[in-house]
């Protein structure tokens, strides 16, 4: 990038010139083809694509662990692995999926790619920090995976003390890896906040930002404010494991409940680090495929911040059975239910957007339907869990597992798959086969239900989570769940096959194949290195503006 | 791809270089605003990191009030006070560096940062004497606590020293990082890089140093005084 192009301010009234300079501005994908030009790139789009590749790989690893767990539980006794391997498998399933897939997936891959495009910016505010963030993630992952291969860990992903400081498995490297991954998360969040504050193009006011940007902003606030506390608590556990300080060990006067407070102070808001980006993706998709402006834009935008805010006051519901006072339980119950209020605002506004819309039922919209269902079902069970009296019998049963998979995993996976399909043409300039997209979406949604609805029933019947063996009477539902997991895996496999095929053999996509009015479609697909060719687009309308008949046409794409 | 605000190494002596705007920023003002906002956010994460330790302290002080009071009286108040004064003075010199950078007096910026780093070094030397005395008498964290002193045979005393060493150790680590940061910015000042239009690096480096000072200002009463 030459220093002469140091100003991105657009001429007032300038419009993007269609096709102009096209030959002179190669897309970001082919602008530099050496390995070094990718690995050391400062282009947010290339960093986003590298994130995408890595999180997909981590998703595969986490998925394989999931299948090990599910197949082990096919029969009441030992099935394919021994008890210790099973403990390691469900721990690593949780650690990999949460820290290496769900937290970085949407912000890292799609946030990095789309945020500057949606703000009309040339890049994020700190491109080098952005690249560092990717390598911190990979460095932390490398250390954690080294730990996995040299003993693994059997504590469950919550690392509860004092067990995690006494177990002979290799806790320290895995927790240290998670500590480094936390730095990556902070760096991404910090970068997005500063980018949103300083890099908006002329015309993009706070209330003209796309809702995905609002969601990323709220997510970034949580990442910056919650992750340092997790960093400290992980360091304390590593120190405790290596030197037996006793800070969380009741045998030495320590307080294991303090660990739970500090851990959940991060890890409950972390749930919203996982689902808020999903809410943002869905707000974009529901407007595009309903051909309607989003209903209640400000309510959707503010409810993201609302979830981020009350998310910090909800951690205590993880400790209803830890000896916490009834008064505390009541306070945390009410604070937790507030999250449901803000989520309901979003859900009603999405449904209001679809209402009387001209729905274009494409693959991303199919995932939106699944997402709506998982969010409502998972969210309602969440309100049930926030009720202390109901939490007590359900505590640490499969009901918890099913609940958080529905809301945290179901919603995030739906949004991740929707984003992958919605932005695939933008990122790679290729189209995919719509029929296969719908088939795999149906398989994944069905498979997900088949996996986790039996687990709701198992939990309600009293099957505890994390157990290696179980009584005969639970077997039918466990077999159903494992079959569902197999279906789910098939759905992902089909997606992997046709998207890889499309990447190579797919038809070339137009700049705006969905006729979306989202700002990211105002440039070519795939975008050129500097995001926009010629003068910057002019931003005069709200980002999801479909309803004004005079402006019914989508502006000419570049 | 994007160049930072770092100036080229070769330019006429005595003339501050023109600050470079990275290609993705609209203007120098926006670039400097972004840098400041980023630093404030980073400092917020640092405060939250230490906040976790403060929560640990509060929790265990509540559990072991007698042990914590007894152990607290075995810290060297004189050395702690001297260290507090040293750090506050170093914050003053760091602030003066920003003042001189705005006036393009790069020579004075270098002097101020050298003074700051020397005081940081002094802080660490005093800390070294405190630590070695503690290690000598066995006032150590958790299972390593061996001090036979009768007034310290109270529940919670080893926990106190766990928190003492963790928090002062983490703070000491930040002191070292701060020294490196200030040395790097001082090196840039030595190349005559700063002026009224371009002093963000000095400002951000000093902000970091103020945070290191601020954390100590909380640690000192928490550990030594109450």
Would you write up a description of this structure?
- The complex is a heterodimer of chains A (558) and B (226).
- Chain A has 558 residues and is an all-alpha fold.
- Chain A has one domain: Cytochrome c oxidase-like, subunit I domain (Cytochrome C Oxidase, Chain A).
- Helix content of chain A is 64%, strand content 0%.
- Chain A is built from 15 helices and no strands.
- With 226 residues, chain B is an all-alpha fold.
- Chain B has a single domain, classed as Cytochrome c oxidase, subunit III, four-helix bundle (Four Helix Bundle (Hemerythrin (Met), subunit A)), CATH 1.20.120.80.
- Chain B has helices at 28-63, 65-72, 77-102, 106-137, 157-190, 200-225.
- In chain B, α1 (28-63) packs across α2 (65-72) and α5 runs antiparallel to α6.
- The model of chain B is unreliable at 1-9 (pLDDT under 50).
- Chain B: It comes from Cystobacter ferrugineus.
- Chain B: It is a multi-pass membrane protein.
Observed structural traits:
heterodimer; A: 558 residues; mainly alpha; Cytochrome C Oxidase, Chain A; 15 helices; B: 226 residues; Four Helix Bundle (Hemerythrin (Met), subunit A); 6 helices; disordered N terminus; Cyt_C_Oxase_1 (chain A); respiratory chain (chain A); electron transport (chain A)
Question: How do the helices and strands line up, and which of them pair or pack?
Answer:
The complex is a heterodimer of chains A (558) and B (226).
Chain A: H1 35-39, H2 44-72, H3 83-118, H4 127-149, H5 163-166, H6 171-198, H7 211-243, H8 256-290, H9 297-310, H10 326-354, H11 363-386, H12 388-394, H13 398-428, H14 434-461, H15 475-505
Helix pairs in contact in A: 2-3, 2-4, 2-15, 3-4, 3-6, 3-7, 3-8, 3-13, 4-6, 6-7, 7-8, 7-9, 8-9, 8-10, 8-11, 8-13, 9-10, 10-11, 11-13, 11-14, 13-14, 14-15
Chain B: H1 28-63, H2 65-72, H3 77-102, H4 106-137, H5 157-190, H6 200-225
Helix pairs in contact in B: 1-2, 1-5, 1-6, 2-5, 3-4, 3-6, 4-5, 5-6
Main location (chain B): membrane
Pfam family, one (chain B): COX3
Family (chain B): Belongs to the cytochrome c oxidase subunit 3 family.
